[in-house]
Amino acid sequence: MSAHIWIARDYLKCSGCRKCEIACSLFHEGKIWPEASRIRIFMLFPGLEVPHLCAQCEDYPCVSSCKFNALSIDKKTGAVVVNKRECVACGICIEACPGKIPWLHPKEKYILICDLCGGEPKCVEVCREGGWNALKIVQKTVLGFEKKNYKLYAREPEEVTRELAKIIYGEEVI
Amino acid sequence: MYGYSGKLLEIDLSNEKINEAKIDEEILRQYIGGRGLAAKILWDKLGTKWDSIDPLEPENILLMLTGPLTGFFPGGRICISGKSPQSNGIVGSTIGGEFGVELKCAGYDGIIISGKAEKPCYISILDSLVEIKQANSIWGKEAKETLKTLVNESRMEFQKSKLGKWREPAILYIGPAGERKVRLAAVMSKLTHAAGYGGYGAVMGSKNLKAVLVKGTGPLPEVFNMDEVNELIKTICKECYDNQALFRQWGTGYGGYYFGNATSSEPIKNWQEEWHDEKSYSVTQFERFWIKRYWGDFGCPTTCLKISAFRMNSKNIVGDNPDYELQAYLGTNLGIFDPVKNIYLSNLIDELGLCGINTGNILGFAGELYEKGILTGEDLDGLELTWGNIDAFASLTKKIAYREGIGDVLAEGVYRAALKLSKMKGKDLLKYAVQSKAIAIGAHGVRSGLDYTDEISYACSTQGGDHTSVAKIPLDHPNSELTVLFYDSSVICWFNDWAIRKDLKWKLIKAVTGWDITEKKWYEELAPRILSIQRILLLIGGPDVKWLPLKDDDDPPRFYEPLPSGPKVGRHIDKKKFEKERKEYYQALGWNEEGIPTTETLVKLGLNEMARFLKEKLKNFTF
């Protein structure tokens, strides 16, 4: 339980380099494949880069929405695990997610959700190596004070972009 | 075939025909991609009628080409080419951003666009779904509005094909300048990215093509050895992290002060001076406005780009870093030494879709003519074009983009405008044009001898004033045109190669393609072949502009004037030394004294057909 982790994101620090997508798709697909990456950087307007990935909500609405028992929670990390054989790519979990984060695999019939790479997320690793630290690992505490907060990060990219625009550009851009 | 999809997308706008064409592996082995492949395609498709093809008429073709290393070598780029409406030769004009990566993920190595659409249009590519769409909602719009509209429209379209949150596509577009076929118009991406040299924004405009957008949902093409590619990417990034700290911190924005003060090679007031000590123009004064300090394109470890923002006259000015070239050309070259004014003008240039270098060059040219009383307030519709007058220079920039008044003349670029104004004023004004082959000379002067450029840099380049592609001896010099040709053909970022061991890119191209493209083979065979095609088509030129070998392979008259100040005061180009180096350079490439590739050289390079054509051409054609 103590090994549960979460990936915090600092939008202002994201350089838009997308090394996280390269690392994620190489780890999970063995290829450089941005649209099959479990983390996707949205750039709805240049300069406003939004890393979009699972926030591991404490009530896991995606898991409870699945009618095919294709989603479960990893005991060690707390990540949502997709059972590729059970998943029918119906997309109900996308609707259930407050941030509309799950993304259908571009070629296969299953949903893509961040699995935290089994506890050592590659996206965080490359972001740290590069010195940007837009992504950081947060250890979940035993008492779980932070629990409610995770879900607050499960937001739609348009909403985050609008807020960022006000901070960075001082205006509405989308 | 590894590293490529092996397919090109051919789009005929006149007949609204879309076709997928296979590329012969042997051609890719010889021409790699990007600028190299552009030379081959242009020679094959337009070569024998080159001199009759007007770059701004439908018979010209527009190329958007990736290379095998695009997406693998850190930092994404794409190469834009065609017959240039500036030099009337071939320019390989590369631009940063995700377009190349998205295109490869959509299953194409490049796009060939021919003909002209009846009405303003844009091209939308979602994997194999390629459509020509009406551009009513974006035609006439400036950069940011164009981007916003296209992102919204395309995401709504994509949404129809699949559930979930779609991301934005990568977009190449033109501003109002390109729509009006201004020869200084760039092909743009994102906010600040531009393929400026060559003037391909005007070619897009001439085809009634406002934008091309692409979303590819597939992976990058399969490579020869993925494990090795992976390791090499890690190594390249590591070396960039370790060695490219200056560019990460400041981009080239340190140059506004440095190249003026330290190397005395910064254009000031249309190159009348090249040295200054204006600390107001140092990078520390620019970085106060940087709201995004580390910004990069796909996979980039250096993230040298910066975004500036501030409020001015109750409006938000958001835009370019600016990088060094724009600090110089939209700053010092116009007598501006104030970061705020420079950022403002750079932002305006981006919104209008103009090339900052070529436009800043002609603004400086106009400024000098005004200073000398040759261009009057009357000629300029009342503008007082004194050095540093930001309002006047901004107004003139808009006139150029919209071809209003004198702007219509200046929109033709510095070379053509100088010829026209010479006629109007009855005196030789070409001597004030700081250009080579109708392409503005990059902001790295040659007179001081302290910068990376020298006497033959621009005079002998197949891309004229392009400071990223300079002639240099020895041919395998890290800054030579042959080296840059590799960046432009494998389509990668030169800045990231600077920081790493030289053998890494050769290892990477082998790991990606499986082909044995060695450094030796590149400099002795592949690069000279591509460069010879570029040189011959540049010399054939036409129909409105032609270059004479030797006469036009020269530095602009300004560079023969002594530097008036700075550490190398009094220094200027030495004609004898220049001519000697030019001869050596041509010899090294197997070209004759006039810089024309000899039959022997062409045959050796396997360009037999070109040799025959050239022989025929030379019979009834004087260069």
Biggest β-sheet strands, sense, barrel of chain B: 6 strands, mixed
Q: Mind telling me the CATH class of the domain at 7-215 in chain B?
A: Alpha Beta
Q: What is the helix content of chain A? A: 25-40%
SSE order of chain A? EHEEHEEHEEHEHH
Can you describe this structure?
The complex is a heterodimer of chains A (174) and B (623). By secondary structure, chain A is an alpha+beta fold. Chain A has helices at 19-29, 61-65, 92-96, 122-129, 147-152, 157-168; strands at 5-9, 40-45, 48-52, 71-73, 80-82, 103-104, 111-112, 135-139. Chain A has a two-stranded antiparallel sheet. In chain A, helix 1 packs antiparallel against helix 4 (122-129). The longest helix of chain A has 12 residues, at 157-168. Among the domains of chain B are: 7-215, Aldehyde ferredoxin oxidoreductase, N-terminal domain (Aldehyde Ferredoxin Oxidoreductase,  A, domain 1, 4-Layer Sandwich), CATH 3.60.9; 244-440, Aldehyde Ferredoxin Oxidoreductase Protein, subunit A, domain 2. In chain B, 61% of the residues are buried. The interface between A and B is large, with 47 and 47 residues.
Summarize the structure.
The complex is a heterodimer of chains A (174) and B (623). Chain A is 27% helix and 18% strand.
Provide tags for this entry.
heterodimer; A: 174 residues; alpha+beta; Alpha-Beta Plaits; two-stranded antiparallel ribbon; 8 strands; 27% helix; B: 623 residues; Aldehyde Ferredoxin Oxidoreductase,  A, domain 1; Aldehyde Ferredoxin Oxidoreductase Protein, subunit A, domain 2; six-stranded mixed beta sheet; four-stranded mixed beta sheet; 24 helices
Please describe the topology of this protein.
The complex is a heterodimer of chains A (174) and B (623).
Chain A: E1 5-9, H1 19-29, E2 40-45, E3 48-52, H2 61-65, E4 71-73, E5 80-82, H3 92-96, E6 103-104, E7 111-112, H4 122-129, E8 135-139, H5 147-152, H6 157-168
Antiparallel strand pairs in A: 1-8, 2-3, 4-5, 6-7
Helix pairs in contact in A: 1-4
Chain B: E1 7-12, E2 17-22, H1 25-31, H2 34-46, E3 62-65, E4 77-82, E5 93-96, H3 99-105, E6 110-114, E7 121-126, E8 129-134, H4 143-159, E9 170-173, H5 176-179, E10 187-189, E11 193-195, H6 200-206, E12 209-215, H7 226-243, H8 245-250, H9 255-261, H10 283-286, E13 290-295, E14 305-312, E15 315-319, H11 324-329, H12 339-352, H13 356-371, H14 390-401, H15 407-410, H16 414-425, E16 435-436, E17 439-440, H17 456-459, H18 481-490, H19 494-498, H20 503-513, H21 519-540, H22 575-588, H23 599-604, H24 608-619
Parallel strand pairs in B: 1-6, 7-12
Antiparallel strand pairs in B: 1-2, 3-4, 3-6, 4-5, 7-8, 9-12, 10-11, 13-14, 14-15, 16-17
Helix pairs in contact in B: 1-2, 2-18, 2-21, 7-20, 12-14, 18-21
